[in-house]
Amino acid sequence: TPPDAIDACVVILDLTSEEITVFTDDLRISDEVAKGSGSLGGYKMFDLVAMKDQMRGIIVRVGREKLSILLQGGAVQQVVPSDLQYGNRNMESKRSITLDARKQAVSVNDAVKVLDGPFKGYKGKVKHISRHFVFIHSNQHGQDSGMIVVSGRQIALAGSRNKQSLADLLNDKK
Prior knowledge:
The protein is mainly β and 174 residues long. It is 7% helix and 37% strand. The strands form 5 sheets. Strands 14-13-12-11-15 form a 5-stranded antiparallel β-sheet. A 4-stranded antiparallel β-sheet has the order 5-6-7-8, with no helix packed on it.
């Protein structure tokens, strides 16, 4: 390019999908995961939601008119709030447990490592559990606001912390 030419490129914003033109000199490579904010129809980022077909997912982006949902199968779907069953399922998730690959009980906020599948080696914190699906926030994943979804059998608790056995957990709930 000639020395007096101005190099520019088009960037698509994560949060709104809006296209903006920026100078290439102003761009930097970053490892940071974009985090949306705000709410739509009473739903907000990282809420666990149920689709009308009973499929569960987690909100990974809040747009002006639609929500992006990371579904339990790993696909991301754009929906309007009326496509969801009323209300989030966050309380249901907080009471849920699943077993990891070593048969240890895993619950929300536990630190885990993915042992198998496309996210093998990723580490993160359990955000939600729905059935045997575990939604994990990992800073190693640069898409979907850092969220991944795996089966409980694909993870292991991180660290050497002793967890209650499944039998102990079940007896505590009685």
